[in-house]
Write a structure and sequence with these properties.
Shape: flat
Order of helices and strands: HHHHHHHHHHHHHHHHHHHH
Distance between the termini: 148 Å
InterPro entries: NEBU/NEBL, Nebulin-like, Nebulin_repeat
Protein name: Nebulin
GO cellular component, one term: Z disc
Largest sheet: none
Number of helices: 20
Strand content: under 5%
GO molecular function: actin filament binding
Keywords: Actin-binding, Repeat
Helix content: 55-70%
Structural class: mainly alpha
Number of strands: 0
């Protein structure tokens, strides 16, 4: 057991673990004193020391002199008169240049140079020929007066229904009316169109379709296509027999035989 305790690492470090967190450093240690001195040197608290607070009287000679010197160096105080005059207008009413400008404006004024015709009192004579002719012309070109008699009479005129002109106008309106022109077509469209099966146009259309049909054109060929397959002899196939006859006719040897 003693040997196990000696060889045990936990027992070996037990005393060190107890004393590890218990450290006592003296206050007057050289490192502590040096750190405090460095902190005081880099700190701004003890760098500036105000010896005392003093108060200057407003009427002190130095204060008054400083104010005067500041006003002399101030750009705002230097330009105060200029800024005040800049926004203030000044018109030399009795100056020579002003009188010259007034005289020149009077000379160039069209109102003072001549009297405008609108200011003259003018009255035309009622029986002046030109005025009378103007009135007559205005009455002649007046559309309301030109149509006044017709507007009064057009509501009082009554035309008989059997008047020839009235009847002719009705016929003309019917002749040129598109509604009357298309009345028969609309009536036929509403009744429908009756076309029988044996009608000539239907038969013609069917015949034309049969002629133009490729199916009808090849119908006989399709019926004969499987009938001559596997013939027992040449005589059983009519096409082969026909081919042999044609070959004999075209054969020069048979021709000269």
């Amino acid at each position: 057991m003693k040997v196990a305790k000696i060889q045990s690492e936990r027992e070996y470090k037990k005393a060190y673990e107890k004393e590890k967190t218990n450290m006592h450093l003296p206050v007057d240690m050289l490192n502590f004193v040096s750190a405090k001195n460095c902190q005081n040197m880099i700190s701004n608290i003890n760098y500036k020391k105000v010896p005392h607070h003093w108060t200057c009287l407003p009427d002190h000679i130095g204060n008054v002199h400083a104010k005067i010197a500041y006003e002399l160096q101030s750009d705002n105080a230097y330009k105060a008169d200029l800024e005040w005059l800049r926004g203030t207008g000044w018109v030399p009413t009795g100056s020579l240049e002003m009188q010259k400008a007034q005289k020149a404006s009077e000379i160039l004024s069209d109102k003072k140079y001549r009297q405008h015709p609108d200011t003259l009192q003018f009255t035309s004579i009622p029986d002046d020929p030109i005025l009378i002719q103007s009135k007559i012309n205005s009455q002649n070109i007046n559309n309301r007066l030109y149509r006044a008699a017709w507007d009064d009479e057009k509501t009082q005129i009554h035309m008989m229904p059997d008047t020839p002109q009235f009847l002719q106008a009705k016929l003309n309106s019917q002749n040129i009316s598109e509604t009357v022109y298309k009345a028969g077509l609309k009536e036929q469209n509403s009744q429908g169109y009756d076309l029988r099966v044996d009608a000539i146009p239907i038969k013609v259309a069917k015949a034309s379709r049969a002629i133009a049909s490729d199916y009808k054109y090849k119908e006989a060929y399709r019926k004969q296509r499987g009938h001559h397959i596997g013939a027992l002899s040449l005589e059983d196939d009519p096409k082969l027999v026909h081919s042999m006859k044609v070959a004999k006719i075209q054969s020069e040897r048979e021709y000269k035989k």
